[in-house]
Amino acid sequence: GVDEYENPALAGFLASAQARCTSENLFDQTRRYIKGIVSERLRNLAPQQDHLAQVVHAAADTSFSKIEIFTLNHDCLIEKVLERAKIPFTTGFKPDAEGLRRWDRMEFAESGKKIRLNKLHGSIDWYLTSSQTPGWSRVCIPPENHDRFDMLDDGPAMLIGTFNKMQEYTIGINADLFCAFRMALWKIDRLVISGYSFGDKGVNASITEWIRHNPAN
Question: DSSP assignment, residue 148?
């Protein structure tokens, strides 16, 4: 929302922009529209998956006891490749009594599975439930036919945009995932990066800090 920015240089501009809008919800409607377009484009694409063969090879390599995969993509290609290869992995979601798969930070941290998939910017199949079940996160992966479940109409739980991600890394599931990313960095001295355009300031800062921490990194 426009009220989340604390930069005083923007305060006057944002107040003026809100006053000129014909609808108080114009910004929210625009955001929902963008998220809807992004999710539909990604959902309907059937791109090549050959480039993910390295993930399958690594999973089958017994010299690796644990594999951490961090992606900024919103699609579900990696999940599909792992499932097709019958490779156990966790994204931190587990079933609840209602038939939803809900985010659970303990499942993510202690599942015991060899592969942990960390989607820092969310996913096209993540949604927010409008009601809070005690002890469970509101972020869930509903079944394909989820009409009977009470979901917010805000579209998938994804981070899109340029300057909002740094704020989102401090709350909710995004904070948990970003913390896991930083913790994983301090346990390694080699980082493999593929397809990342270095447009995320939070990720860039963490990688830069990690590189400078030790000349061997």
Answer: T
